[in-house]
Amino acid sequence: MKYPEHREALLRLAGRRGQYLAEQNPDWAQLRRIGSRRDELWLSPDPDDRTAWFDYIRTVDPELASEELEIAWDDEPTANRLHFLDHLDVGLGEHDYTLLERALDDPAVRVRERAIQLLRQLPRSPFASRMVTRARSWVRLETKPLRPRLAVRLPGSLDDLAFRDGIEDVHYKNKGIRRWWLRQVVTATPLTLWESMAGSPRDALTIPIEKQWRDVMIESWTAATVLQKNTAWASAFLERDGRTTDRRIVAIADPRERVEYIVAGHADEYLLGVDGSALLDGIDRPWPLAVAEKLLNALENEALEHAATGEDLGIHSRHSHFSTLRSVQARFPFEAIPLLRSAASRTSDPGWQQAFTDSAVNIEQRRLRLDVLRSHR
User: Fold this and answer.
1) How many Cβ atoms sit within 10 Å of the Cβ of residue 337?
2) Alpha-carbon gap, residue 226 to 187, rounded angstroms
3) Which residues pair with 140 in a beta bridge?
4) Which of 9, 55, 115, 214 could form a disulfide with 103 if both were Cys (CB 3.0 to 4.6 A apart)?
């Protein structure tokens, strides 16, 4: 099943008749209701049955799925081991440590690589502890002679345990072998290590680093922030870099801090662009009225620019902001309805006038539908 997280909803929709039909038709086997430990699907010789069981159980009891996979691991073909690892993203946690450590010794390169990718997302794992030990010996906090700084002292060679942990002894994009070692270790090291050295994520991003290593450290911290989904580091990057912040990081930053960033006017110049949409991604709906006001102000400026062209189409037309207007209708609070109507009355561009009016009407309809649902509870 492509979306196992929706399995229970689909089974409820199918009901008993759907279950009966699934039992009669082998092609519908993945729609059979799945039990728990040692379910018949998991014991089936059909790989589709087994992956269906694993994918579903991973959504409701990831620890059980991991335990069962550990038992079966040695008997699974490489393709199955890789498939199961690909589905560990759902419910990934400390219950997966043992299995992933085992996968580091797998004879298949792709299995080992996938295990390393997953372990980099687990900052409390034994793998992470080994990376911390390496990072502490490679990157040190120096407090003299002037102010604290990070100094890098890399080893002359790697040991076998480093190779097992995925530190490759190869050049990468002509950046030099030692830079590549450093990048791999820092990317896989829990970000809390650097906080313990510098004081906070913001302090770490401003602490002096030896010039030849600074870019590598920043690139590695960026990758680590994405892998570890660290909101504090993401917010620090956003505060420091603004519009140039990696969009993968922007979406991780604390939604409340992103709201404050928008309301403070820091995103006024790019709120309607791709960078601005990253700021809005994941903010609870309905959006705060202050955010709606900022976005509406930006749209009104677009309407003003477009009216000056006298054209129907163009980069400032309502057509160029179709997705944003859809978001307005779905995410603006009800309190923004009069603001949209006022914007419609102010604009001289017929297209934008219609866009603001339609948005107000659609939000009003959303409110009426919600009222009806509430009245039937």
Assistant:
1) 18
2) 10
3) 151
4) 115
Q: What is the pLDDT of residue 35?
A: 53
CB-CB neighbours of 21 under 10 Å: 12
d(CA 41, CA 44): 5
pTM of the shown model: 0.79
Residue 170 predicted with pLDDT over 80? no
CA gap 332, 328 in Å, rounded: 5
- Counting residues of the chain whose pLDDT is more than 70, the rounded percentage is 88
Rounded Cα distance, 365 and 358, in Å: 10
Q: CA-CA distances (angstroms) from residue 246 to 224, 240, 243, 278, 341?
A: 12, 11, 8, 10, 36
Contacts of 17 (CB under 8 A, 6+ apart): none
Q: Is the peptide bond before 148 cis (omega within 30 degrees of 0)?
A: no
pLDDT of 56 reads: 82
Our measurement of the distance from residue 259's CA atom to the centroid of its chain's CA atoms, rounded to an integer in Å, reads 18
Query: Do residues 247 and 278 touch, judged by C-beta distance below 8 A?
Result: yes
Question: What is the average per-residue pLDDT within 311-332?
Answer: 92
Contacts of 103 (CB under 8 A, 6+ apart): 81, 85, 111, 112, 114, 115
Q: Could you count the other beta carbons within 10 Å of the beta carbon of residue 292?
A: 19
Q: How many CB atoms lie within 10 A of CB 211?
A: 7
Would you state the pLDDT for residue 174?
57
pLDDT of residue 235 exceeding 60: yes
Examine residue 126 and say whether the peptide bond preceding it is cis (omega within 30 degrees of 0). no
Of 13-17, 59-63, 99-103, 265-269, the range with the lowest mean pLDDT is 13-17
φ and ψ at 205, to 5 degrees? -75, -10
Q: Using CA atoms, how far apart are residues 82 and 84, in angstroms rounded to an integer? A: 5
β-bridge mates for residue 152, sequence order: 139
List of residues 6+ apart from 154 with CB closer than 8 A: 138, 178, 181, 182
Helices 7-24 and 47-60: crossing angle, nearest 10°? 150
